[in-house]
Amino acid sequence: MYTIHFEPTLFVFLGSSSGQVGWRLKELIDQVYGDVPILRFLWVDTDKTVDPLAARWFSDMERAELVGFNADAVLANLNNYPAIIAWWPQNSRLKPGHIQRGANQIRLVGRLALFRMYNERDAGPALVDKLQAATAALTEIEKIDQTEAKSTEIVQYVVERGSTRVYIVSSTCGGTGSSMTFDIAYLCRHFLRNSNPTVVGISMLPSVIDKAIRNESQTQKEKIRANTYAWLKENGHLLSNPSWYVQYPEGAPVSLQAPPFNLNFLVDIGNQAGHRFDSDDDVYKMLALGIFLDTGSPIGGAIRGFNANVSVLMEEFCGCLRAYSSLAAASLVYPVDKIKDYCGNRLAQAVVQQGFLAPAKSESASEEASAVLGRLKLRDAELLKSLLAGCRLSNSHLPAAKKAEKVEEITSKLNLQEAENKDELPEQEKKIEASAESLLAQLKDDIECEAATIAIKRGVRLAHAALDSLVAAVDAKAEIPESTISMLGLKSRLTKVGIDEKTLSEAKDEYKLARERLRALEGGVSRVLQKAARRGNWAQDRDKARNQCLESMAKIDDYSLQLAAQRQASNIYDQMTDKVKEIRSELNKVIQKLERTAERLGQDADHSLSERDTNDEVFEGTLEAVDAAYITNFYKSHAKNLDPKTTFGTLANSLTVTGMDDLKAWTEEGLAMMLLEHSRTYFSEDLDNTSLLQALNDHYGSRAPAEIRAKFDRLVRYCNPFWQYDKDSGCQGHEGKSIIGVEDESSPLIPPEYRNNVQFEIRTTGFKHRVDAVRVQHGLPAFLLSGMDDCKSYYTAKRKGMDPLHILPEAEMASEIMPEEKQEARDTFALAWAFKYIVQIGEWYYLDKSKEHTTRGMHPGRDNRLDQGRIKAEDVFVRKDEAVRTLAELMDREIEAMGNLAAIKLLDDTTADHKATVAKIGIGNDDLRRQYEKEIRALEAKQRKLGRLGP
């Protein structure tokens, strides 16, 4: 047994691109763990469009669509939205009419949508409701118990109490994700404030979104980079000033003293090893894998333990926090689904060829045709019996005719019966016709069902051959045996062995003669004398004549009905022959579909073996551990024990087919999917129980150790964190961790070079089909990221337009991402002003090394002049290396002489003066305001070095 430790976790995905990570993550978790109640999900977007692949993975409570409002109208009525106007930039030039559907890469619009729809419940639960429900579920006892109840004899699920975790996946680029990350992060902290939350931000950089935006314009390319710079600047401000106070449209203000994220992961399209993703989909897959491995598996426990002790994130390089991290995840997999697909397609192809399309034997076709005739009661005698069932003339006058003594009375009754029969016979014929019509309709349905059943149970070709037998031509002159299986033969038998018009005519003539004999016994002297003299003989003659009349009349009745039934039966055979030919034509089409399906299954099998075309520079997040040769050998070895005909029979018994419509509805795609799904099951048990390393060992034999090591080498070679920066910048000492997850860390099949390697930590995951590698790296300042110069350039240019880019008012004056050149010299300028070694006379700034201007009012002289204006003066000063060194030494001596406490007090006074000056700076002098605020930070930093505690 092994143990899976779950920390209650909420996964939040902001924007469309992040949602692509979300559904892939949910799929991975579902495949391995099933539904885990203590893991919750929320996808927030400003667009209703959802990828169908993603839609099925998110319930209504797991997706918040911030749509259904008029952003232009909100902008026009901004004064009516105090929660929005509190942060809306005063320098924004966005006006009603400028906003399109979605956030449209405008960060202000994304945050506006969050606030406008924060508590909007007209269409159901609001964003805040869904977020509160998701965070509350993390600490519900019921959810914890349900998760741990999923434990089995093999794996034990344990929920970590006392802490929670939140992943927020977004991009730094768009109008949705980058605009909401801080609000969502702080709201999660607020709702989980009593549950020790760890908030992890994972942000995709512009190069990833370049791949996601189809037909990206230059304007879009510039905008997403400008947004990235703005986001990084805001995040940097919150890292340096970890405080949040925001009033949302509902509830008390959210007030927290914390950074938005405990960890800030950034993901680029390429890594330092020179590998790159081929598409944005590959990025989404890698991120989903990385988050998955950090959730539940021992890999995640090792990573979190390491991350908790990282110190480099609080260090600085060139005056900038080394606050950012990156990651990479890759897997060496035993491709179970690929093998199932190949084997399933091959077996399915055999099932079609040897089952559905198996050649038909003539004797089998004859047997099926005879059985069909029997089941449908289509043989001539049975068909006539069915048609005549319930058909008879009433013969209401016959009893009286049989009892009558007088010939005249008998004759009268017979006449009455003839008249009655004349009226009833057409009605009976109509009844037979109606019965035939109903029977024909039923027979047409039944023959379709019979054909479809034979096709399903014994093969389509056999069904086709059986139908051929049913409509086979016969020699009309030859004697047709009762056992014939041709409906044309059965029709012929109707006339050869049945009743015809001649037989009916003969019966009528016979009846006429019998009536004449009976009539001869009536009246006349001779008959009266005979009756008197020979009473007994006359009575016999009367009864004989009467019986002949009755018998002949019965024949006429029977023959008339029989002949009517034969005519309807003959029509039925004609109609059924046409119907069978129609079905046979449809079966031809089904055969063609099956032939194409068999071809398709073969092609799909071949295609499933194809490998992705890549080169050494393209990152492969999933490396397959076995090749095409292994897969084909696997099928061959298992196919020996499989009979396609038996498989066909099993499949046939599982299908529900009621008629030809079901077969006609088949499509090649549908057939292929049905057959593949069924055929895959024959390989599932073996594949599901196969261990990757053991499979490699069995396959390669004596070469296994070298082959396994080569695959491990390839796996870790690819797994380098996805960010790019100048490695020669001098920024060193990144902290990182590399973990390899295997089914069993004690397995002797693990290469010894990895089992005993300090660079890699091996952990047991219990995953049979995969070896996973995860690498994290911490400690990069944002300005070192590749492309950051472009981001700043576009940021500077775009800020001159309508969109101010920033969503946090305080970020306007935040420190730039890019460090100042000669930062130490600039700090010296700020300190030299405080200690009066730099003075201002009019608009000009001067060096005053001897403080003669301060102490004696003497002008420093032209040689000591810096420049006009504070910003320009600083730029001139930092280039005077000798002056910088001299003033730094002078200040050090002065501080030593006056003491740290006095120096701190002096810097306090200067800081207060600067803050007063900043308060007086009017709109439009942002550069000067930033200059003073930068100097204030330098003074405060010096105070901390001198021993000041607190702010």
Q: What does this entry look like structurally?
A:
The chain is elongated, with a radius of gyration of 47 Å. It contains 36 helices and 20 strands. With 951 residues, the protein is an alpha/beta fold. The strands form five sheets. Strands 2, 3, 4, 6, 7, 10, 13, 14, 15, 16 and 17 form an eleven-stranded mixed β-sheet that branches. It has a three-stranded antiparallel β-sheet with strand order 18-19-20. The protein has three domains: 2-296, Tubulin/FtsZ, GTPase domain (Rossmann fold, 3-Layer(aba) Sandwich); 350-609, no CATH class; 820-945, no CATH class.
Task: Note the topology.
Layout: E1 2-6, E2 9-14, H1 16-33, E3 39-45, H2 52-55, E4 63-65, H3 71-76, H4 82-85, H5 107-116, H6 127-137, H7 141-148, E5 155-159, E6 164-171, H8 177-191, E7 197-204, H9 206-212, H10 218-240, E8 244-246, E9 254-256, E10 263-267, H11 280-293, H12 298-307, E11 316-317, E12 320-321, E13 324-333, H13 336-356, H14 362-376, H15 380-388, H16 398-403, H17 407-458, H18 460-470, H19 487-497, H20 501-520, H21 525-533, H22 535-609, E14 622-624, H23 628-639, H24 644-654, H25 660-664, H26 668-688, H27 692-700, H28 704-718, E15 735-742, H29 752-755, E16 761-764, E17 770-780, H30 788-798, H31 823-834, E18 838-841, E19 844-847, H32 852-856, E20 865-868, H33 870-877, H34 881-898, H35 900-920, H36 926-945
Parallel strand pairs: 1-5, 2-3, 2-6, 3-4, 6-7, 7-10, 10-13, 13-14, 15-16
Antiparallel strand pairs: 8-9, 11-12, 13-17, 15-17, 18-19, 19-20
Helix pairs in contact: 1-11, 5-8, 10-30, 13-22, 13-23, 13-24, 13-26, 14-18, 15-22, 17-18, 17-22, 18-22, 19-22, 20-22, 21-22, 22-26, 27-28, 31-34, 31-36, 35-36
